Structure prediction request, 86 residues.
Amino acid sequence: MWPLLIRTLRVYAPYITLPFAAVVGVIGYNLENYFSDKYTPYNASIKESRDDRLLSNETLESATEIEKLRYKANVLGTNVSPSLEN
Prediction:
C-alpha cells in the first residue's frame, strides 16, 4: 500500500505543490503590501543638484561660461594607437 501511495504522490506532485505555492505567494504578496511603506519621497537627481550648485556659485546664464565645466584637453589626442603617435 505504501509504495502505491508514494508512487502516486510522486506522479501528481506538481499538481499538489502548484496550488499550495500559489496560495503561499498570494498571502505573502498581500502581507508585503500591507506592511510595506509605499511612499517614496522625490529627490532630485545627482546631476541636477550638481548643476544647480555650480550655477548658484556663478551668476551666469549658460553653463558654457563656467570654467569648471569647460573641457580643455584635446579629445582627439587621447587613446592614440602607438603606430599613430608622432
